[in-house]
Amino acid sequence: MTDPDGTAGVIAVAGEALVDIVPAPVDGYFELAPGGSPANVAVGLARLGVPARMIARIADDLLGRRLRAHLEGNGVELDHVVTADEPTSLALVSVGPDGGPSYDFRISGTADWQWTAAELAGTLRPGAAGPVLAVHSGSLALTTPPGAAALRELLGRAAPDATISYDPNCRPLLMGDPADVLRGVHDLLATADVVKVSAEDLEWLAPATTPERLVEDWLGRGPALVAVTLGPDGVLAGSASGLRSRRPGRRVEVVDTVGAGDSFSAALLAGLHRHGLLGAQARPALRAIDAETLDTVLDGAVAAAAITCSRRGADPPTSADLAAGAATGQPAGP
């Protein structure tokens, strides 16, 4: 299988696939929605025409079966999903006046965090879509024991052959001391090639650090590309070769910002994939990315995030949505 540009290969996404309990349009009611940052990224990639493989532990319960149906219905490869005995994780979501979400979680003893090395042993093998060109992970999956250590080892094992993409996607309620989390982030920067972090994450992890200083610091720790998303102000990014770019946000009527960062990550990876910049052989070219390509990829990611903000919940855009937004000069609506 190849993407529309003829490039064979798949992007594997490792981490949680959980259920969000979100406010319904009718006040006082709630509804269930598929969620989990890594799962949202996998769906976003598939909707953009990039072969995506989900590496997850999904429960064999009512909610887990709905998660599988959602992922499969969006074209995400599930061959390496573990059928877990534990129940599905839950995230309770509230949305503030500005559209920003707050989270509460029910994750004790649930499926997403129980990884073993044996379960992950064959997850990076080539499949129908070709070899694994990149592995993306982040959020709770890389900080929640006991499975976090196994997933971190997976990223290290994948690094010689694949681009490693990382999004800390911090959840302060569950991640503990930000200084401890930041040390773990720094450890992963030695492995990661592409890193996306939000200004909100930065405020919690290192409140005394500006986005500009963070880009310089994190690039010095090993990645080829670091992008700091700035909400409505767009994105600041830098490359290992010395490029620095600030791209503007897209004007959109915000419904909520749930999943916007995940849509950014998916579109960022899809753009790099489209330009042939994923995979170990492309690592030198990724580190030497030119200004025009970097700006094009960042603009696509900003547009994808803006479209998601114009919709309820984590509902990433398709390639057609992005094309429609490019044609009009504004993000496409729902």
From TrEMBL:
Q: Which Pfam families match?
A: PfkB
What keywords are assigned to this protein? ATP-binding, Kinase, Nucleotide-binding, Transferase
Q: Where is the composition biased (Low complexity)?
A: 316-334
Q: Name the PROSITE patterns for this protein.
A: PFKB_KINASES_2 (PS00584)
Name the InterPro entries on file.
Answer: Carboh/pur_kinase_PfkB_CS (IPR002173), PfkB_Carbo_kinase (IPR050306), PfkB_dom (IPR011611), Ribo/fructo_kinase (IPR002139), Ribokinase-like (IPR029056)
Q: Which GO terms describe its molecular function?
A: kinase activity
Query: Which residue numbers delimit the Carbohydrate kinase PfkB domain?
Result: 13-317
* Region of interest: Disordered: 312-334
User: Would you say which domain of life the source belongs to?
Assistant: Bacteria
Return the similarity comment.
Belongs to the carbohydrate kinase PfkB family.
What's the protein called, per UniProt?
Carbohydrate kinase
What's the source species for this entry? Answer: Pseudonocardia acidicola
